[in-house]
């Protein structure tokens, strides 16, 4: 439960005015004192995140935000931090104090949720503080809302059931490889062990692909590139080879043409984003201006070395092919420029640490200003001159 990566959790944002009871709701759901609660409005400053298992639905990440009616210079900063969450959530809870219903405020929120295709649920809080006439009036106005008092355990338990029902109807199970290969297929995963490989473990995309294969009855053979040739000779049947993108060229020479070949990054580009968009984006590379401005976007943060794929290997590849005057800018984690119109190309990581919604929001932002975007794996396949081969397993989608 606690080791489920953030990108595989449903992100649920909690929004509302100051003192509506957002933090109390999060504490009641988790049965922990996650957020600081006070009668003073504006207690929550930066978004507070809490991962948990919402049974029987599955792993989720709750995000408690500052009141969107905050005031003053610091209040504006807190509001902006809360609004940044619009691009990161899959589902929203709009929390109202039953004694302070603000329809205009709510309408503004709903416009933002519509813009980012966010499903939502309206929660009317502090039910125990209202008289019967007020309760009846608000219930008539909000027949679909959930009414509760966070201090009453039964209310909270009923709310969890209602939330799980909403989430189960809205969210579809996603797969990385399960829809590509039938049950009983054999896939070989090529995992080079170099200085970038973490000691004692394999990296997240590899773990996630293995788990997805196990979930769908697909048989995995995990090997280093140095043992790949011998492995292929020993196996009677191989339905797909998946390699680390950095070993594309070497692996392509070893794997016979009749065996489909792709990369971890390309599979994640397909699952988390829009593979056709990344494929179309690669077509502009050779027509880029000599001083093109290129944004390198990577969602996870880590120490970099001379072998880092995003900081060094891809820029070096592009400079070898297009010239030394290319200009690169690097963004890691959730940091991402709001104005992307001045870039000639965006190169994004596979996105294993982000949700599909977060990736699609970034792609939509680029699409609005007609900035092409591609993916680490797609670009490395292009650099290894095996782009069409790496895309062959997805030819119907392209």
Automatic annotation (TrEMBL):
Q: Name one GO biological process term.
A: tRNA methylation
Q: Which InterPro entries does this one have? A: FeFe-hyd_GTPase_HydF, GTP-bd, HydF_dimer, HydF_tetramer, P-loop_NTPase, Small_GTP-bd
The record's keywords, sorted A to Z, are: GTP-binding, Nucleotide-binding
Q: Which domain of life is it from?
A: Bacteria
Span of domain G: 11-126
List the Gene Ontology MF annotations in alphabetical order: GTP binding
Q: In this record, what's one Pfam family?
A: HydF_tetramer
Instruction: List cellular component terms (GO).
Output: cytoplasm
Domain named Hydrogen maturase F dimerization is located at: 176-273
Q: Which residues form the Hydrogen maturase F tetramerization domain?
A: 276-393
- Listed SUPFAM superfamilies: P-loop containing nucleoside triphosphate hydrolases
The UniProt entry, under PANTHER family, shows: TRANSLATION INITIATION FACTOR IF-2, TRNA MODIFICATION GTPASE GTPBP3
Database matches in NCBIfam families: GTP_HydF, small_GTP
Designated name of the protein: Iron-only hydrogenase maturation protein
């Amino acid at each position: 439960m606690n080791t489920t990566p953030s990108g595989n959790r449903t992100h649920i944002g909690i929004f509302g005015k100051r003192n509506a009871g957002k933090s109390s709701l999060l504490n009641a759901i988790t049965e922990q004192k996650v957020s600081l609660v006070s009668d003073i409005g504006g207690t929550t400053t930066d978004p507070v995140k809490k991962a948990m298992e919402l049974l029987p639905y599955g792993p989720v990440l709750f995000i408690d935000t500052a009141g969107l009616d905050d005031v003053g210079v610091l209040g504006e900063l807190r509001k902006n931090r809360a609004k940044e969450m619009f691009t990161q959530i899959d589902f929203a809870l709009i929390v109202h104090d039953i004694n302070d219903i603000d329809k205009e405020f709510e309408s503004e929120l709903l416009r933002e949720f519509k813009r980012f295709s966010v499903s939502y649920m309206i929660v009317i809080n502090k039910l125990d503080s209202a008289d019967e006439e007020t309760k009846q009036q608000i219930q008539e106005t909000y027949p679909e809302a959930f009414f509760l008092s966070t201090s009453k355990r039964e209310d909270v338990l009923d709310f969890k059931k209602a939330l799980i029902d909403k989430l189960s109807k809205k969210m579809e199970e996603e797969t990385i490889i399960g829809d590509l290969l039938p049950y009983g297929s054999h896939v070989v995963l090529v995992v080079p062990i170099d200085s970038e490989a973490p000691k004692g473990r394999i990296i997240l995309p590899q773990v996630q692909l293995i788990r997805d294969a196990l979930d769908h009855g697909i048989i995995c053979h995990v090997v280093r590139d140095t043992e790949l040739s011998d492995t292929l000779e020993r196996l009677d049947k191989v339905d797909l080879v998946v390699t680390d993108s950095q070993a594309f060229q070497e692996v392509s020479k070893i794997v016979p043409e009749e065996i489909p070949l792709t990369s971890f990054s390309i599979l994640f580009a397909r699952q988390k984003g829009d593979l056709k968009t990344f494929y179309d984006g690669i077509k502009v590379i050779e027509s880029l201006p000599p001083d093109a401005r290129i944004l390198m976007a990577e969602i996870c943060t880590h120490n970099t070395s001379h072998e880092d794929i995003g900081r060094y290997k891809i820029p070096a590849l592009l400079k070898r092919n297009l010239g030394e005057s290319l200009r690169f800018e690097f963004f890691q984690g959730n940091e991402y420029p709001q104005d992307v119109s001045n870039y000639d190309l965006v190169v994004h990581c596979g996105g294993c640490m982000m949700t599909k919604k977060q990736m699609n929001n970034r792609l939509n932002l680029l699409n609005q200003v007609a900035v092409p975007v591609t993916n680490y794996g797609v670009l490395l396949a292009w650099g290894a001159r095996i782009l069409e081969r790496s895309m062959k397993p997805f030819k119907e989608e392209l």
